[in-house]
Amino acid sequence: MEAIKLEGLSKSYGALSVLENISFSVQEGERVAIIGPNGAGKTTLINILSGEFPPTSGKVYCFGKDISKLLRYQHVHDGMSRSFQITRIFDNLTVMQNILLALHGKRSSRYQMLTRANAYRNINTKAEELLGLLNLWAVREKKGNSISYGDKRKLEIALSLASEPRILLLDEPTCGLDVGEIDGFISLIKNISKNLTLVFAAHDMDVVFGIAKRVVVLYYGSFLADGTPDEIRNNPKVLEIYLGKKEE
To answer: Is there a contact between 174 and 144 (Cβ–Cβ < 8 Å)?
Structure first.
């Protein structure tokens, strides 16, 4: 089943064209990397998929539903969640409070203003599961502004998973991490549910080839290539773009 389908997707800001006639689909459970040089349109594509911005033209479908003009919160309710290049957490709340707040976001309990957030046993259990999965249990009582940058990145992933998405979008998820943290992140993502559809934009090829089963290449806003990691590694056009190697 198609989790995501793009048909002739384009995005421009006045005379500046950022994406041009992008069409491809992602099957449910696939793990797809979006790569390309700086300015290729990777973040713009993630922003459109997540509902941050509407496309200028073309269609976006989520499990067969046209979501092209829907707002971001509507995308979340349709089963789509995302992280950002720059972490967006509540610095003055503890890690646990961040998770509890996110977990209440899609539940009717968010309207119970006079009840403590940690008074719901099922939500507390889910918070423990997420913090355990992301290796954040040890820092659960620390405030967001006092944990390491690597833990902040993991916390944002946890917040994205709190809405129990069917599709997870990640924008440069390892940006700012050191080598050791990147290796840990790759292992972490591999342990996330196999039923979850993952689409991520990245420039780190170790991350791309360590996680993705399929790679889509953008070049100055246009679709360039689509294939398995091995096919992309050996694609002459991709080699020329990234390594300056021309096909003989």
So the answer is: no
Distance CA 124, CA 117 (A): 9
Question: Could you tell me the residue range of the domain that residue 18 belongs to?
Answer: 1-79+165-248
How many structural domains are present in the chain? 2
Domain check: are 184 and 221 in the same one?
Answer: yes
Phi/psi-derived region of residue 238, left when phi > 0, alpha when psi is between -120 and 50, beta in every other case: alpha
The alpha carbon torsion through 113, 117, 121, 122 (nearest 10 deg) reads 90
Task: Return the exposure string of 48-59: e unless at least 16 CB atoms fall within 10 Å of the residue's CB, then b.
Answer: bbbbeeebeebe
Structure pTM?
0.84
Cβ–Cβ under 8 Å, residues 23 and 206: no
pLDDT tens per residue across span 9-57 = 999 998 899 999 999 999 999 999 999 988 889 999 999 999 999 999 9
Contact 11, 53 (CB under 8 A): yes
